[in-house]
Amino acid sequence: MKKSTLFRFVVIILALSAFIVACQPQEVEVEVTREVEVEVETEVEVTREVEVETEVEVAVEVEVTREVEVETVVEVPVPVIVDDPNRTLNIIAVQHAECAWDSFWCTVQAGIEQGALDNNVNVTILAPDSFDVDATASLIEQAVAAQPDAIMLTVTDATVFADPIQAALDLGIPVVAYNAGAGPVEDGIGYLTYLGQDEYAGGYLGGQRLAAEGGNKGVCVNHAPGHTGVAKRCAGFEAAMTEAGLGYEELVTTDDPAESATIIGDYYAANPDADIFITMGPNSAVPFYAFMDNEGLSAGDVVHGTFDNSPEITARIQDGTTMFGIDQQPFLQGYGGVTALSLAARYGILPAGPVTATGPGFITADSLGEPAGADAPMSIIAVQHAECAWDAFWCVVQNGATTAAEQMNIDLQILAPDSFDVDATASLIEQAVAAAPDGIMLTVTDPTVFAGPIQSALDAGIPVVAYNAGSGPANDGINYLTYLGQDEYAGGYQGGQRLAALGGTKGVCVNHAPGNTNVALRCAGFEAAMTEAGLAYEELVTNDDPAESATIIGDYYSANPDVDIFLTMGPNSAVPFYAFVENEGLTTDDFIHGTFDLSPEISANIQNGTTQFGIDQQPFLQGYGAVQALNLLYRHGVVPALPVTPTGPGFVTVDNLTVVQALAGEFR
Amino acid sequence: MASLSSPSNFQKVKARLSNYSELVVSISFVSLFLVFAFTADNFLSLLSITNILTIASIRGIFVIGVAMLMISGEFDLSVGSTLAVGAYVFAILMEHGFILGGNQILAPGLGVLALIISLIVCGLLGLVNGLIVVRSGIPSFIATLGTMLAFRGIARAMGNSELAKTSGNADVVRFTGEHPFLFRVLNGDIEWLNQMGTPAGGARMAIVWFFLVVFAAVLVMRYTQYGSWVYATGGNRLAALAQGVRTNRVIITNFIITGVLAGLAGVVQFASRPAIDPARGEGWELIAVAACVIGGIWLQGGYGTIIGAAIGMLLLQMVEQGLILAGVDIQLFQMTIGFILIGAVLSNTWLSQT
After folding, report:
1. Of the residues A139, A423, A483, B299, which has the maximum number of CB atoms within 10 A of its CB?
2. Same domain, A205 and A311
3. Which residues pair with A218 in a beta bridge?
4. What is the domain extent for residue A162?
5. This prediction's pTM
6. In this structure, are residues A535 and A503 in contact, taking their beta carbons and an 8 Å threshold?
7. Whole-angstrom distance, CA of residue A285 vs CA of residue A353
8. So where are chain B's domains?
9. Coil, helix or strand for A610?
10. Can you list the positions of beta strands (E) in B48-201?
11. Residue A535: inside a domain
12. Under an 8 A CB cutoff, do B190 and A23 touch?
C-alpha cells in the first residue's frame, strides 16, 4: 500500500511539473527578443572591423548595422509621477556594500542622508552583510515588492541585476544607478542615469591642467592594463596632450610597488624628454613617488597629477609635488541620486544623459580646506538677464532656484534688470560681488562684457556658476565653475538615435539658424548618430520666414525622395515642416520627425503622432541645479565635475506629454 | 491526588507536543505572517509572496540536504562552497564547453549533460566530506570547515583558469548565448502565476524544484527504511549499530545528497541570473543551519523534520521581505533572526525535557 501511495505521489509530481513547464509558452517569446539584443551587440564590433577592410562588404553589413541600432537603443520607460509633489517620498537604496563594513560607503551614505534631508525624502538603505551579488539582486526584488516612489541602486553586475531592475521599471518606478554601473546604454537596462565618475573627462581635464604648466611629453602610468575605466582615463589624457601639441605615451606598470618604480625609472632613463605624468591611483602614484625619490627629482623637474586620493597623495599635493588628485566624489553619488529621483518622481524632470558625472573633482592644494558644513548659514545671489515679471520662461527657472533654496535653507536673492540690458546686468553682478554672498549664480549673456565683473567675484573668493546662458568656462574664457544648460550635441545625438531606432534611410537636419554655434552642435550630434546607424545625412538650411522655409523643405524633398528622417531645430523650423507635410499630403508612415524645444504646435503634433519628441532644456533644473551646485561646494566641499553640467536634453514624448503640459509654467 | 494530576496532564500535553517538532516554527511563522500582514504595506501582494517563495526556494533546496544531515547528527559547512563549484562547472560547460590543454573536448551548450556533470561533481565533493568524517573521525563541524575553505579555493581557481577563459581579477563567468529551454525549466518565470496580480508576481521555477525536493525528502524520511536509519543514526548511534544500521553508509549518503542538492541550488540560481562570481554562496551554510535549528532540528541529531526545516527557511525569507516592506533598516534583519533562533532552541530544549 505504501508503495502504491508513493507511486501515486510521483505521478502527481511529474504531472504537476509537466503542467507548469507547459504553461511557459508566452515567456518563450520574451526570452527570444532579449537574446537578439545580445547577439546584435557582437555584430556591431564585426561591422566596424569590416568597414575598414573592404568596401564591398560594407554594403552588405550596413543592412545588419541598421537592425542593430534598432535593437540596441535601450528603452527608458517614463516613470510615474507621484500624486502630490509636496508629500514625503519613500526611496529605497540598494547597494552592494555599506558603511558598516566598508568605510568608503560612509561618504556615499552621508550624501544620501543629506540628500534625503534636503529633498524631504525618506530613504531606506539596503545592503548585504558581505559582498554578495546574488543577495543584492534579491534585495532589489524585495525592494520592488515594497513599491517605493523610487529606487536607487548600484549596478555591480548588469547580467544578474537586469531582471530585478526591469521589474521595477515595469511598475513605472524611477530607477537611477550610482557608484557602480556603466549607464543604461552600456548596461542594456533602461534605468534613468548612472551617477559616477566620467573617466574620460577626468583624463582629459587633468591633461589640460598639466599641459597648461608646460612640457614636452605626457605619460599615462597605467598599473591596471585591460581595465576599461582606466583605459578611458588614458584616452582622455592622450586627447588633451594631442590638443596641446605634446607627445604622448602609455606606460604599463604592475601592482608591485618596487617593480613599478623600477619600470618608471627605466622608462625615464630611456625617455628623458618625458616630463608630464598622470598616475591612475595610489597603486601607480606611490611607485611614482619612489621613482622621484630614487632619481632625486623635485617638483620643478616633472609635472604630476593623479586619480584618486590617499594619505601619501594628500601629502604630495601639500608639498607641491602633485598638482591634483582626481576624486569621484562619492558624497555626490549619494546626494545626486536622491535629488535626481526626487525631481523625476515629483516633476517628471529626467536626467539629461545616460551618465551623470559626479567626478572628476579636482583636489588641489587650494581645495584641501574644510567645507563650511551642513548647518552653516548660506546666502546666494542670482543675477540673470531676464526675470519672471516680464518673461514667463524665467518663472520656471526661478521656481527651480527658489525650490532648491527653500529645501536647502539658503537665503536666495534674485537680481535682474527691468528689460533686456547687458550693461545693466553687468552692473548688477558688480553690486552682487559687493554684497559678499557665499555664492553667485548668473547668466553669461555676453562673456566679453561680463568677464570683468565675474573675475572680480572670483578674486573675492566667491564661487560662481553660470546657468541658462553661457557656453562653459573654457569657451567663455572666464574661470567660473560650471555652466548649467542644455548639452546641444547630446540633444542632437540622442535624438538621432531615437529616430534611427524607428527605421529610415537618410536623416536631414533642418537648420533655420545657420551660423549659430549651438544649433550647429545639434546638427553635428544628429549627424554622428546617423553615421553610427549607417544612415545617410544632410543638413538643410532654411530661414526664419515660415512660408519660404516650407517651400525650401518641399523642393528639397522632391529632389531627395529617399529622405525620411527629419530633425528640426525649434518651432521656427518645426512649423514650416508641418506646413510642408500638409502641402505634400504626407502621412506619418512617410517620415519620422523629432524637434528641439516645445511650442503649442509641437505639443499638438506629439499628441497626434506626427512628431516623436520635443527636446526640452529643462529650465527648472537650471535654476535648481545652480543653487544645488553652490550649496554642495560651500557646505560639503563637492565641486562640479564638468565645465558644462547638462540640464537637457529632456525628451518630451507622447508618454510624458500630459505630465509636462500639466506642470507647464511652473516646473517645465 | 488532584494536586499531582494536573502536572501529569501538563506533562502529557508537553510529551505530545514534542512529537510535533515543527510546532514552534509553525506558530512563529503564522504569528509573524500576521504581524507583517497588519504592519507592512504590500505584504499580502502577489509580488511580495512570490518573492518570498522564490528567493527562499533556491537556498531551501540545499537546506533540505543540510536538514537530513543534521538529523543524522552531522553538519555540513561546505554547502556554500559546493554550490559555487557546481555553478562554476555548469556555467563553464554551458559557455565554453570543456577545454583541456587547448583541445575542445566538449562543445559549449551541453544542456542536460552539463547539469548532470555538475551534479556529479558536487556529489563527489559530498563523498569527500563523508569519507573524511567517517574514516578520520574528525567531527564534521571541523572537517567541513576545512572543506568549506578547500572547495571555495577550487571555485576561485576554476573562475580564474583556462577553463573559464578569464584572467586577472575578472573571474566572473557569464552565459552570453541564447537561453536554452533548460534554463526555463530550471528557473524560468512562472508566467501564468505572475500575471494573476498587479504588480506582476516574481514566481520562478525554483519554487517547483524546492517543492519537489521537500516532497521527495519527506517521503524518504517518513516512509522508507532509509529514513528510519537516518533518525536512528542521529538519535543513538551505538544503539543503531547494534540494530544492524550501517551508520557510516547513512552518513556518507547524506553528505552526497547534501552535495548534490547544493549543486542543484547553484545551477537553478545560475539559470535565472546567469553570472557566477567566486564569492557566491559565502555565508549561506550558516543560513542553512539557522533554518534547520529554527525548524526544530536538534543540533545533536535524531530529532526534527524536513517540513520544519523548509518552514524555517521560508520564515527567514519572510522576515527579510517583511522588514523591507515595513521600511525597517536591514541591519535589524539579523537581530530579529538571531532572537528567533535563540527562541527556537530554548523552546525545543524545553520540549525535549520530558
Report:
1. A483
2. yes
3. A248, A276
4. 89-192+331-359
5. 0.84
6. no
7. 32
8. 44-282
9. coil
10. 98-100, 103-106, 173-174
11. yes
12. yes
